[in-house]
Amino acid sequence: MALSTRESGSSVEGGLTPPSDASPVGLRGQSPRSEAASAFAGRPTSLWRDAWRRLLRNKLAVAGGVVVILLVLIAVSADFLAPYSYTKTNFGRLNEGPTRAYPFGTDQLGRDMLSRMIYGARVSMLVGLGAQVIVVLIGVPIGALAGWVGGRVDTALTRFIDVMYAFPRLLFVILVMSMLGAGLMNIFIAIGLTGWVGIARQTRAQVLALRQKEFVEGARALGAPSWRLLIRHVLPNALSPIVVAVTFGIPEAIFTEAALSFIGVGINPPTPSWGQMVGEGQQYLRSAWHLCVVPSIAIAITMLSFTFLGDGVRDALDPRLK
Amino acid sequence: MVQFAISRVLWLIPTLLAMALVTFLVMHATPGSPLDPVSEGANPLSPEAQRNLAAHYGLDRPLHEQFVIFLRNAVQGDFGNSFVYRTRTVREILADTFPVSLLLGSMALVLAVAGGLALGILAAVYQNRSWDYVSVTLATAGVAVPNFVLAVFFIILFSFIIPLFPTGGWDSPRNWVLPTITLALAPMGIIARFTRASMLEVIRADYTLTARAKGLAEAPVIFKHALKNALIPIVTLLGPMFAAVGTGSFFVESIYRVPGMGRFFVLSMTGRDYPMIMAVVLTYGAFLAIMNLVVDLAYGALDPRIRL
Amino acid sequence: MKPVRIDDTQMDLLATRLAAIGVGRRDFLRLAAGLAALGTTGFNATRAAAAPKLGAGEKLAKEQHLRFGGGSWYDQDPASHDFNKDLYCGGTPQLWAGLMKFDANFEAVPDVASKVTPNADGSVWTFVIRKDAKWSDGTPFTARDFEWSWKRQLDPATAAPYASFLYDIKNGEAFNKKQLGDASQVGVRAKDDSTLEVTLEGPRGYFPVLSAYQAALPAHRPSVEKHGDKWTEAANIVSNGPFVLEAWEHNKVIVLRKNKHFFGAKDIPLEKVTIPIIPIASGVLPYENNEIDLSRLQTADLKRFQSDPRLAKEAFRFPYPGTWYLLPQVTKPPFDNLKVRRAVAHALDRENIVRVSQGFALPAHSMIPPGFPGALDDAKIRNIQKFDPKLAMQQLKGTPYEGGRNWPKISLSLRDEALGSKPLAEAVQATLLEHLNMKTELEVLEARVFRERLWKQEFQFVWIRWFMDYPDPHNEYFDTFYGKKTTGKRQAWTNDAFDKELEAGRDTRDTKKRMAHYAKAEEIMQSDVGYVPVAWVVRYAVAKPTVRGIEKNRQGEFVVDGNIYTDMLRHIHMIEKA
Fold it and tell me: Looking at this predicted complex, what is its ipTM?
């Protein structure tokens, strides 16, 4: 059996997030004790409700979740929240520190840092989510197909996945971005094209395992057609590692965008992106440190929150950690 | 196990081939040609000069021919001359820079493992108490802050505010400290988190309960029984992490002026240094694949439940 | 010696020559300053001795060791030091000495040549090589070395990308393009060990100026033949210049030592020069950390330096004439409409825009920066594109964009480069948005991609930083904007009246009349808004108080190494710390 504890929805260069340790069921079987315990659980609870409850008990995860929700809200309502437009310049007040008029100070063109940060939240959220959408759109079908159909299709797809997995991820993203040029859509594409491998693997593993479970056999016995089986019954149960991977993938996408912008192949001005602000502000670190520090802190907090949330989600969804 | 190893090694070849092909195609699809003049503001080369240069580099042949020629030479270890450092062969440059990245990466990894294990064990043993939170926050912070930001912070902090270390270079061990720490923080975070999770699983597992029930003191329980089992999955982390760290993080090497291989990659991108790009990607890929294999073999050897 | 007349046809040829070799526009700025002075002094001005002038209480440091770099000086490892074959090798020109060199006023003065004699019409130049010229291994340096080096450059087998630099030499072009197989027919000949006779394709009064440029530096034949491509490695190289390559650790550091066989060695104070390779990202940190003594400054650091009393003394400006301008492409809407272009010109608040560069730019109202021949300080010209937001909006009346509405998608394209270009472009964006409600998207492109598309005139709206090649208006106007050029045209705009003025300027002898033609040309171009001048380039460097001897030009400005003037190291001396 292929070693799959290493699987992850994320690579290990640059922004590193740990591989999910949702190994395929069967590697570490449940101990007889806990299985018996769940049989006696009593009240019927679905996996999701259980998970939700467990999640809520995890303080760090809740904190992370709250921040994430806040960020999404900020991103969505940027137009209302931001005191100035992110393009409004003021050449008389360049690189100023925080003042009453400009709570986060101004940047090298006299633009309000607070407004740029708020709009930057929107860009970061877009990047994080957009990239993951593409990752899921590519990775899940491939993985599901491989796991479900099996046989030669599976072998072929797995080989393909393995080859793609061998690609050094950040290098490849830079390569693709150089080819496509800068821009938000291109970043989605670049990160998406290089990041679907982990999710594909996870999906495949889950589908493989679930395929043999009784409920699938039962549904098949009832005459359900293959596709419906896959989509209606199997995939929903395979969701947990996907959810975890997506949650971890978001901060990683944000980090990758920051790295790309730092090199110069990311997002173009005047659209504010935190990564780009860090890159541009880096040369001012000695004279106007807020230019670099404020977006860095924002990136850090965002990534931290998503990571804690991801941790919590993974722990909550792990049936073994009852 | 031997069969597994052999089949993996054999699979390396088509994998590298595919990598070469994809990189080759993407590279040539990227606008901008290596024939353009290097300096700013310079006018384009005359058509004759361009033709001469193209012939010199073999760029005037059809793509598939170029690829085949490249493969043929690459197999013999000849990647040609760099387009940017025109008097040096790619092999020379890699021979100079790869060991540097390897050294930096190894040191960073050692630091990451040592630190990560320590943090992770602490967090697991004192789960949900203050040490846990501190550890987890430190670890996650290491993962969350981009290393190029950290690099600049460290330089300001340790070169200017507290003048302990030079701002860059690679000559003496003093130069090694800051880049290593910067590069190690993120893997340290990952290892810490993973160690914690792994330890927690093991601590709760039955055999630990058994050991405790047998009356063993806490320390041997942790260190002899729990740790050994917890460590095994961590081995699987090492492979990809070694590759990532070993071939150098571009940012760390750039900012600290470390003469390593990672720094070359983006430089070769902007210079459209085709031979260099191909070589870096393939080296990186091969290294990654080999380290993964080693790690898988090690994992198989360590965990008796896994049969390769 | 009666100086040779250099007519404007020849200036034009010089311009072509320089343009064709892809010499950085910036590079040649200094070049023909000398050409103006040529008329009086000819080429045999004696070099002033470079004995270090010490100020009061200054003592020469015991160790004459300079460390410099950073801020785009050696931000990348050189490909080689072989200027003869590869003009843009990025190497150290101080390893070599050419027939002539440029002084701080960018005038060509003799270096290895002790005498320069033209024939009657300037089509044959004879250079006498100094008897005491030697290679760094002690062997004598002769005229044959130049003959061989230049023929090597022209040899098609060498595939030197910029061999066209030497096309003025008789049969040089034919030889390089393989139309002529016999190198002995090429017009450069060593009559004997110390006489080099160069026969040109025609009268070329400027030829000695060319011979001062880096593209004419020699190479060491035995080393090339023995070591091939690797002949410029520290272990192999033999050079003839003021310094020798003592060590070259790739990507780390270049170490130079004074060449004791150099004929001017006794006038050179520095014994050792260390040049670490410092990427731009490191900024001025190594300088502040006392790892280097001399560096170039970037935007982010100037203000900080100027506000620190100690550091402020260490920073100084140096000439780097160049202009930032906008090119609204007349073939692409909305800029195909003259009124729109005028609106753009009037909407730019240049004074305000340059503040963004924090000292590294001055507002520009014409192409030539102040202090250079052809610079215009005419109120009439200033007015043509003066800042007037009301007027700007008024211009839009009658166009589909009246009131600043209905703008199509507009991309402002620029090259990705450090040194302040992007913030200025962003400032331009902001100004256009504010005064014309014109929203633009910045398109930052890699240098190569940018250039490719620029020559094809694919861009809609371009932000360009251009550097003066040589101080003559012919460079600013003809080389850059002439409509009938076949290659290297940055913009689609052409104007017959404009072209005529340029041709007149090229063909007229009388200086005053020439300048009048160029002034008219500027007027035409600005009225027709073929371009929009925005800012002039300013540059700063920093030097520790122990560094002395940086040369000054006639205007009293410090001059540091660039692509033309490379003499800095021969004059610097280090003093004891106070």
Answer: 0.75
